[in-house]
Amino acid sequence: MASELEPEVQAIDRSLLECSAEETAGKWLQATDLTREVYQHLAHSVPKIYCRGPNPFPQKEDMLAQHVLLGPMEWYLCGEDPAFGFPKLEQANKPSHLCGRVFKVGEPTYSCRDCAVDPTCVLCMECFLGSIHRDHRYRMTTSGGGGFCDCGDAEAWKEGPYCQKHELNTSEIEEEEVKTFHKVINMQIDNEYIINILSHREKSDTYYCMLFNDEVHTYEQVIYTLQKAVNCTQKEAIGFATTVDRDGRRSVRYGDFQYCEQAKSVIVRNTSRQTKPLKVQVMHSSIVAHQNFGLKLLSWLGSIIGYSDGLRRILCQVGLQEGPDGENSSLVDRLMLNDSKLWKGARSVYHQLFMSSLLMDLKYKKLFAVRFAKNYQQLQRDFMEDDHERAVSVTALSVQFFTAPTLARMLITEENLMTIIIKTFMDHLRHRDTQGRFQFERYTALQAFKFRRVQSLILDLKYVLISKPTEWSDELRQKFLEGFDAFLELLKCMQGMDPITRQVGQHIEMEPEWEAAFTLQMKLTHVISMMQDWCASDEKVLIEAYKKCLAVLMQCHGGYTDGEQPITLSICGHSVETIRYCVSQEKVSIHLPVSRLLAGLHVLLSKSEVAYKFPELLPLKPHHTRANILTCTNLCLREMFDKDIVMLQTGVSMMDPNHFLMIMLSRFELYQIFSTPDYGKRFSSEITHKSIVIMLNVCIYTLSFLAGERFSPGVGQVNATDEIKREIIHQLSIKPMAHSELVKSLPEDENKETGMESVIEAVAHFKKPGLTGRGMYELKPECAKEFNLYFYHFSRAEQSKAEEAQRKLKRQNREDTALPPPVLPPFCPLFASLVNILQSDVMLCIMGTILQWAVEHNGYAWSESMLQRVLHLIGMALQEEKQHLENVTEEHVVTFAFTQKISKPGEAPKNSPSILAMLETLQNAPYLEIHKDMIRWILKTFNAIKKMRESSPTSPMAETEGTIMEESSRDKDKAERKRKAEIARLRREKIMAQMSEMQRHFIDENKELFQQTLELDASTSAVLDNSPVVSDMTLTALGPMQTQVPEQRQFVTCILCQEEQEVKVESRAMVLAAFVQRSTVLSKNRSKVIQDPEKYDPLFMHPDLSCGTHTSSCGHIMHAHCWQRYFDSVQAKEQRRQQRLRLHTSYDVENGEFLCPLCECLSNTVIPLLLPPRNIFNNRLNFSDQPNLTQWIRTISQQIKALQFLRKEESTPNNASSKNSEKMDELQLPEGFRPDFHPKNPYSESIKEMLTTFGTATYKVGLKVHPNEEDPRVPIMCWGSCAYTIQSIERILSDEDKPLFGPLPCRLDDCLRSLTRFAAAHWTVASLSVVQGHFCKLFASLVPNDGHEDLPCILDIDMFHLLVGMVLAFPALHCQDFSGISLGTGDLHIFHLVTMAHIIQILLTSCTEENGMDQENPSCEEESEVLALYKTLHQYTGSALKEIPSGWHLWRSVRAGIMPFLKCSALFFHYLNGVPSPPDIQVPGTSHFEHLCNYLSLPSNLICLFQENSEIMNSLIESWCLNSEVKRYLEGERDAIRYPRESNKLIDLPEDYSSLINQASNFSCPKSGGDKSRAPTLCLVCGSLLCSQSYCCQTELEGEDVGACTAHTYSCGSGVGIFLRVRECQVLFLAGKTKGCFYSPPYLDDYGETDQGLRRGNPLHLCNERFKKIQKLWHQHSVTEEIGRAQEANQTLAGIDWQHL
Ligand SMILES: [Zn+2]
Ligand SMILES: [Zn+2]
Ligand SMILES: [Zn+2]
Ligand SMILES: [Zn+2]
Ligand SMILES: [Zn+2]
Ligand SMILES: [Zn+2]
Ligand SMILES: [Zn+2]
C-alpha cells in the first residue's frame, strides 16, 4: 500500500513547492469574499500535505505547511515579507508585564513560602532567580506540565511581584490597533475554520483507523492488542502505544474503509472483555488532515501573538466575541464546551493558547473567568463523563483565576460562584438514605470512579476561598451567606452519615464505602476551616453564620428524643434528666461536620468577644451538645477530634458540671458503678467485663482533655504560636526528630505550612547530620516541664514511648520520676467555668471510688493505668488551685477549693476516708512502686498549697520553698542511698546493653568496618608486617640484595569449623572469600569494549586501562573443604527454592555467587592462602658472580631461542626422541639450561585445586566467557587481576594522600597478599610451555627477536602490567636454568628493564608545553643526564621528537610520571617477597621518591640505569623508537596516554539542585523525536543523560530487552553503573541486569535531610562529603557489594525489574 502511494506523494510535493506565499497573499488581499478564497486554498492544499498514507513524516509536513499554508497568512498579516514584518512588530511591542511562561513537564517551579498568597502561585526558574524570593524561604517542585509562571501578577504575591525582567513593562498603550485592524478578519477565519473542522464529518475513499488513549488500559494491553489487530511488530506496536499515550491518538492503519473497519473490530473485540473497549474510530483521511492542520494553526497563532501584545489582545477580542447563535456561541465558549470531545493532544494545544492569550492580562482573564463560571456546571458534567485525567481537562484551568482574590470575589458576587460550585457538587452525589444523607454503600466501580472525579470540585471551592477578604461589601456578605447556606446543606447531608455500631476489642475493617465517606470528610476539613476564617473576618457574617449553623444542627437532631421517656440520674445529691442511650448497641456516626463547624464558630465568638457585645444573638442551649458527647470515643482524625473536644468543652462550660458528668457516665454506661454504693465490689466479681475497664479508662482520659486542653486560641488565653510550640514539645518528648518527621506530625494549614520554623528555635536544638543519617531536633531541657503525659494528640504507642523517654531523662538527671501535669494557661472567659469540673462533687466521687479500689486493691476492677489517670486529674486540680492562689488579687477570693474538698472524709452512707487519707495510704503500698513518685509529688504540692492558704497572700512563695527544703532534708539520706543504687543500676544496664549490642550487631559492625575500607583507622586494622622491623637496616624488596626475613609461621582459624591450622605448602588449603569483577574505574577510554571475548588476547594491557579485572575480599578465612561444603549446600538450597517459587536473592548462585558465611559480603570465588612462593623456589643463595643486565638479557635470549627451536621441532611430525637430543647438541644449548626438566609441584593437592579454582574464576569473569581451566589465557588473567587491583589501590591511596605503606585495613592487606602470592604460584598448575610462551612474548616486546613480529609498540603497553606478567611468568623459564643465576637476579633485571622502558615512554609522551620556568643551565646531575638521554631519543626518532629546552622540566615530568609505577611496584614486591616496608614510607608526607628507589634497588638518579647499561640499552631504545606506531605518534597522527595518568572522578555536580532539574527538563528522549523524557537519568561516571524506564529507549542486550540505564552500564562501566535519577533526586546503583538499589543522594536541604522523590520541595544543595562517599564506593569497587547489602536488608528491592530502568 505504502509503495503504491509513494510516487503520487512525490508528484504532489512538487506542485506544492511551486506555490508562492507572496502571490497567494496578494490574491487574498484583492479578494472580495476573503473567507471563501481562503477556504478554497485550504481545502485544496491541506489534504495533500497532511494525508500522506500510513506513516507521517512530521518534519516534511511542517515544512510544507509553513510553505503553502501558514506562509501566505503571515504575508497577508504583515503586508510584507514576514521575515521583516515580525521583527518590526516585535520591536514596537510593549509586552505584558506578566511572565506567563507555560511550564513543560518536569520543569522546576518555585513558590515563596513567605510571599506567595497561596501555594499555587509559582515562578519559573528565570523569574525566580531574578526575584527577591531567592533569598526567602522557598519551595521547589517539578511541574507536571500545564500552569504558568505568575511573575508580574500583583495579586499572587504579598511582596516582590515582579522579577527584574518583568519589572519595567507596565505600559498599556495601544498603537498597533490601526495597523493590525484588518487582520482581525483573518484571525476570525482561522478560528472559525478550526471549530468547523474539528467537529466535521464526511465520507470518501481513504481512511485512517485512529486509536485513542484512555486511562483504563495498560501499555502492555495496548501493545499486545495492536500486534494482533494490525499485524505489526512489537517495536511498531510500542511506537504506536507511546504516541497514543503522549498525543492522545494515533492512526494505526491506513487504507479503504473495509480495511480500517476490520482492524477496529479486532481491537474492540480484544479489549472489551474485562473493561470497556479501547476507543477506535475509522476516520476519513481528509478529516484527519484538516484536524492536524487545525492543531498546527493553533500553535501557529500562539507563536504569532508572541510577536505583539496588540495581536494577542485582538485574538482575545475575537475569541470572546459572541457568535451568531447568541449565548455561549463565542469561539472560547465553543472550544470549552467541546473539550471532552477532543483528544489529549488537541486539548493541550488550545489550553496553551488560552494561557498565552486570555490569561495574560487582567481584563481578558476576567472576561474569560466569567465565561468559565457561566459554563461551569456543563463543563463539570462533561468532565464527569470523560475518562481523561484532570490535568488534560479544561476544568483544570480553574486554578488560574479562582485563586486570584479579586477575580474570585467578583465571581462570588456577580456569578454566585460559591453556590454554583456547591450545588454542582451536590448534583453529582445523588445517592441518599431515608433521612436525606449521603449514602456510599453499594457503590459500583463506575460510581466510585466518578466520586473520585467529583472531589476536584472541592478543590475549586478551596481555590475560591483561599484568600479571605479584607473588606466586605453588603453584596459579598449576601452572596457568601448564600453560599454558606448551600454549604450547610451539604454538611447536613453528611451529618450522621454511615453510622456504625461500636465494636469492642476488635479493629474496624476499612470498608470501601466507609472510606468514601471518610475521604469526603477529610477533603472538606480545610474548606470548613476556610469558611471559619471568612466568618471570623466580619462580625456580622460570623453571627449570621452561627445562627444558620445552629438552626441546621437543630434540624438534624430535632426529632432525636421523639417517643422516648427521659430518665433521671442522680449522684451526690445532684440530679438531671436525660435520654436513654446505649453506646455499645446503638449506631454511631463519626461524621458530624455541622457540630464541628458550630464548635469552630463558637471558639471564634469566644475569641472575638462578640459574645459579650450581643448576648441576645446567641441562643445557646446546652442540650444541643448532648448528642455529641460520644464522638470523642472515635479518635480518628485530629481536626475532627479537636473540634469534638471543643464541642464538649462548650457544653461543659454552659452546664452544671455535675450534670454533665452524670450524663457522660450514663453515656459510657458507667453510671451504675458510681451511683450505687459498693457496686464496684459486685461488678468485679459478677460482671467481669473487660469493656467496662476500657470504658472507664477512656472516660477519665476524656475528662483530662476537657479540663486540660486549652491551647486552641479562643478556648484558652493563648495564641497560635503557643499552640504550635506545645505540639512540637510533645513530639520531641517522644524522641529527637528530623525536620521532615516533625513536619509530618504537625497539622498543616491550607497553605501547607505548619508554622514550625518560627518557634522551633525556642524549644529545640538542631544537631547536624554526619556522613549518613539526618539532622535532628532535640528538645531543650527547660521545655521538659511543659510535658503533659496525657497530651491529646498522642496515640497510645506514642504516649507510652514518651512516658518512657521522659522517665529515663529524669532518672539520668537524678530527679524523681513523677511526671506531674504542667502548669496551664487560663481559659478564655467564655470557657472559664470549665475548671470547676475538677472540683465538682461527681468528679470527687469518681476519684474517691477509684482510689478506694486501689486501697482495697484485691479483686476490684481497677487497673494501674486507671489509677495513673486519676492521679493525673488530681495533679491538674492541684496545679489549678496553686495557680489561682498565686495570681489572686486583694479583692478576690479564690473559689477553687480542691484541697479543702479532698481533705474531707466521705459522708454517710459511704463513710469512706478522704481522698487525701487514701493517697497517704497508697504512698506506702508496695504494689504501686512506679506511682510512688507521683503520689509523693501530689502530697508535697498539697502541703504547699495548704501553707499558701494559711499564710498571708503576699508571701506565698517563700513558704512553699521552705516546705520543700524541709521535706528534702528529711529525705536526704534516703535520696542519697537511692541515688547510689541508681548509679550502680545504670552502670550495670550500660554494660549489659553493650554486651548484647556486641553480640547482636556483630555483622552490622563488620559492615560498618567494610564500608570504611580505607578509613585508615588504626583500631580496625592490623599493623602491616608481623615481623619486627629493624629500622636502621636498609630494606630492599628484591634482587640479590633482598633483605632476608626470617620465615614466619602463620596460624589461621577457619570461620566455619573454628579449627586452627598452620599455612603450609603441603597442608590442606585455606581460602579467603573473594569477589572478582570487571572494572572500568581506571579507564581512560570508555568507548572501548571487548568485542569478541573468545578471540580477545589480554596478554598486553593497553595503558588506557579500559577494562580490568578487580579482586576484592572481606578477608574471612575458611578451609577449602569447609567452603566447598558450604557452597554446595547454598546451591542445593537455592535450587530447591527456585523450584517452588522463583524468589529473587541478592546473589546469583548459578554464576557461582554466594555470601560470606560470616559477614554476608557478596563473593564469587575464593583465593588460596599461601606462603611467599619465591622462598620455595629460590633456595640457591649463592649470589656471587651474577650476570649484569646485558649478560642476563643475552642469556635469556639464548634460552628463548633454544625453546623456540625445540617448540618448532616438536610441532614438526616424524620426530623421534633420539633425534631430539642430537638436535639439541646442534643447537648448543646455553650452559646449564635443561629444557627437558620438569619441576615437581610442591603444593598439596588441595592447594593445587584452589589455585585452579580461583584462576578459572578470574578468567571467566574477566573475559565473560565459559570457564575453561585449560585455556592459555588463564594465567594472563590472573597476573592481570593482580596488577589491576594493585593499581586501583595505589590510586585510592594517592587520591586520599595516604602513605603507601600506612596501616591498611586487614581485609585489603590480606587480599593483596593472597592475590599476589596466588598469581605468583599459579604457573605451577598451568602448562609450563604455555607460561614460557607468554614470557617469551612479553620479553620480546622489549627485547625484539625474530620469533615475534606484530607486538604492540611501547606506547601501547601498560608497563606495570608488563612487569607483573614478566616477573610472574619468569619462574617457568628459570626452573630449567641450572647455571647458577638466581631468580632474584632475574626479577631485578626485569624490573630495571621495564623501568627504563617506562622512562622512555614518559619522555616520548611528555607534555612539552612551556610554563616560562625554563632554566637554560641544568643545575643538577639528573637534569643534565635526562637532557642527554632526551637528545639521544631525539636522534633515534629522526628528530621527530620536539625539542625540549629545559632539563629541569624533563626531570620533573619523569619523576612525576614514574611515581605511580614505582608505588605499584613497591606494593607488588612487598607482597611477593614479604620484605617489610621501610618505616619512612609508612608515614604520610610528601614524595617518598628516594625511599622508594632504595626499597626497590634503584639508583635515585634513575638515568644512571641507562648509563650503567648503555651497552645494550642504546640498541634497545633505538629499536623501540623505530617502531612505526611511535613514528605515527610523533608525527601527530595518533594519540597516546600521558603520565602520570589522572585519577578518574565522578562528574562535577552543580551546587544547587534546581539547575540539575532545569537541565533535565530540557533533555528530550533521543529516540522519540523531541519528546520530553519521563525519567531523565544522569550517569555520574561520564555525565550522559539517559531516557530511563521507558519503552522508547529500550534496546536489546545479549538477547534481552533492557532499559537505557542497563544498556549504558555495559558500555560505560562494564556492567556497573552509578546514576542520578533527576526527577526523583535519587542515586541508582546498577550491577549486571538483575541487581540494583537506590542510594541516598548527595543533596541535602537546610535541615540536613535528603528528599528522595522531591516530596517536600525544600531547596537542596550539594553535600560534598556525601558525594565523595559515593565516589569512594566507586573507586573501591564496592558498588556491587553495596547493592548486595541493600538487597539483603530489603527483600522488595530484589523484586524490582532493574533491567528495564
Ligand atoms: Zn517567569
Ligand atoms: Zn519575571
Ligand atoms: Zn518571597
Ligand atoms: Zn574449616
Ligand atoms: Zn566475610
Ligand atoms: Zn556513563
Ligand atoms: Zn526515550
Automatic annotation (TrEMBL):
Biased composition (Basic and acidic residues): 967-979
Zinc fingers typed UBR-type, residue spans: 97-168
GO biological-process terms attached to the record: cellular response to L-leucine; heterochromatin formation; male meiosis I; negative regulation of TOR signaling; positive regulation of T cell receptor signaling pathway; protein K63-linked ubiquitination; reciprocal meiotic recombination; spermatogenesis
SUPFAM superfamilies for this protein: ClpS-like, Winged helix' DNA-binding domain
EC nos: 2.3.2.27
Region (Disordered): 950-979, 1207-1232
Keywords per UniProt: Acetylation, Chromosome, Coiled coil, Isopeptide bond, Metal-binding, Nucleus, Phosphoprotein, Transferase, Ubl conjugation, Ubl conjugation pathway, Zinc, Zinc-finger
Subcellular location: Chromosome; Nucleus
Reaction(s) this enzyme catalyzes, per UniProt: S-ubiquitinyl-[E2 ubiquitin-conjugating enzyme]-L-cysteine + [acceptor protein]-L-lysine = [E2 ubiquitin-conjugating enzyme]-L-cysteine + N(6)-ubiquitinyl-[acceptor protein]-L-lysine
Pathway the protein acts in: Protein modification; protein ubiquitination
Function: Ubiquitin ligase protein which is a component of the N-end rule pathway. Recognizes and binds to proteins bearing specific N-terminal residues that are destabilizing according to the N-end rule, leading to their ubiquitination and subsequent degradation.
Family: Belongs to the E3 ubiquitin-protein ligase UBR1-like family.
Protein name: E3 ubiquitin-protein ligase
Species in which this protein is naturally found: Saimiri boliviensis boliviensis
